[in-house]
Specification:
It contains 19 helices and 11 strands. By secondary structure, it is an alpha+beta fold. A 4-stranded mixed β-sheet has the order 2-1-4-5, with no helix packed on it.
Length: about 450
């Protein structure tokens, strides 16, 4: 490889014709990692995912020029087993409930290399993973995990053992993880490189801290490594005959009695702490009826799915921000951001079987948008002119325009509702929550 063309084609796309998809359980896997086609696929994925710069400040768009001058040297270092990954940049993102999730952002070069490694290892490890494992696997999703929980509930398992792994990604023991990777990895160079990624360190503020534990969330390789480690847990639960569902480090074990649930909780906790040397959060781990269980942002009501109260509160909070009357943006931009957020939220939570709040949500959203228009129109003359143009009677338009009542109050008057009708708001670009829910359930 003499320049970046060995990673990228001239248009920045990827040629998949030579892509090798069959697992190869030999010693020389590094050559497959460094295969130009595999590297192009890795670059395409990293480029599509975008992401913030790592500790070196390099942006995604800067990588092609960098690779053109430096990739040959990096490749040679990888082939010799001399490549040293850079520390990740630590960032925190808020979690529901006020906690924070710590992410480690690798530099772009390391993201490409990690993605290339993951693409080679995934076909080797994934076929052996449990059918009850759903996180970060091709063709599997959180929705599949939720449907499997519903199936176990329908089978009469109405008690959930909810085990919380305390900061799982921060507490992974490197030797325990690497021992499991080595079961199928004979290439010592690749195994050593993975170990160096685990120990690369983290940039916190202005100082670099060693990483003697954990596999930082944020890198392309981390999800696969987590599944490799926790696959031992899955196999143990299968050996014991338990019904369970796991999505990454979120685990529910379904049983038929409280006594059985307590017994399972104690024995599986011993396995996690003793065999896998993980930390179980005893305060958050519990055995409850499935109606009281929370999993992946959902509750269960009998066999029905319902989004959790926390997820619903977060949704309303975000909608309030996007429909804040003091947000000085155009209505077209507001509608764009609303559609983007609502489609994403309903794409995940729209599988909820709980329809009752949906029409009220649509009504509330329309009212908030009418409030935004009312604030944006600002002057009495503008309000009267716009309402008349929308078909409101002259008397109602004037009385409403001169009123000193609040924007929120006036957004529900006869004048604003006969002018800014539901159909008019839809024509302006306002998305319908009800339509998205109906579509998700096959009614449209």
């Amino acid at each position: 490889m003499t320049d970046s063309a060995s990673i990228m084609n001239p248009t920045g796309g990827v040629d998949d014709r030579r892509c090798v998809t069959q697992p190869a359980l030999h010693d020389d896997l590094m050559s497959r990692v460094l295969d130009p086609v595999n590297l192009r696929r890795a670059w395409k994925r990293v480029k599509a995912n975008r992401g913030a710069p790592g500790m070196d400040g390099m942006r995604i768009e800067d990588f092609p020029a960098f690779a053109r001058w430096h990739w040959t040297e990096i490749r040679q270092q990888l082939e010799r087993g001399a490549y040293e990954p850079q520390p990740v940049r630590r960032v925190s993102i808020p979690k529901p409930g006020g906690d924070e999730r710590m992410l480690g952002i690798p530099i772009v070069v390391d993201r490409v290399i990690q993605q290339a490694i993951a693409q080679v290892l995934m076909p080797i490890f994934d076929p052996g993973f449990s059918e009850s494992s759903f996180g970060f696997r091709p063709g599997r999703s959180a929705h599949g995990a939720l449907r499997q929980v519903q199936g176990h509930i329908q089978a009469g398992c109405r008690i959930a053992c909810d085990l919380d792994l305390a900061k799982f990604f921060d507490h992974v023991q490197h030797d325990v993880l690497l021992a499991r990777v080595a079961r199928k990895l004979g290439d010592k160079r690749l195994l050593a490189l993975i170990g160096r990624y685990l120990r690369a360190g983290v940039l916190v503020g202005e100082s670099i801290q060693a990483t003697e534990l954990g596999t930082p969330q944020g890198g392309p390789l981390s999800p696969l490594l987590a599944n490799i480690l926790l696959d031992d847990l899955d196999k143990e639960l299968e050996r014991r005959g338990h019904r369970f569902v796991r999505y990454a480090d979120d685990l529910l074990i379904l049983v038929k009695s409280q006594r059985a649930g307590e017994r399972v909780k104690d024995s599986v906790t011993r396995y996690l702490t003793g065999k896998l040397r993980l930390v179980v959060n005893e305060q958050k781990s519990r055995v409850v009826k499935t109606n009281e269980a929370k999993f992946l942002g959902f509750n269960f009501r009998g066999t029905k799915l319902r989004w959790s109260d926390r997820a619903f509160e977060d949704f309303r909070h975000h909608i309030r921000k996007l429909t804040g009357r003091s947000w000085g943006v155009s209505m077209a931009y507001r509608f764009h951001k609303l559609a983007q957020y609502v489609r994403g939220w309903m794409g995940y939570f729209g599988i909820s079987d709980y329809y009752r709040p949906i029409p009220e949500l649509d009504h509330w959203l329309r009212r908030r948008v009418r409030m935004c228009y009312w604030k944006q129109w600002r002057y009495v003359r503008t309000k009267v002119k716009n309402l008349l143009g929308l078909g409101t009677s002259k008397r109602q338009a004037i009385l409403t325009a001169i009123s000193s009542k609040s924007y929120w109050h006036l957004s529900r008057t006869l004048a604003t509702q006969t002018g800014m009708t539901n159909e008019w708001l839809r024509s302006q670009g306002l998305i319908s929550i009800r339509d998205l829910w109906m579509k998700a359930h096959g009614y449209a």
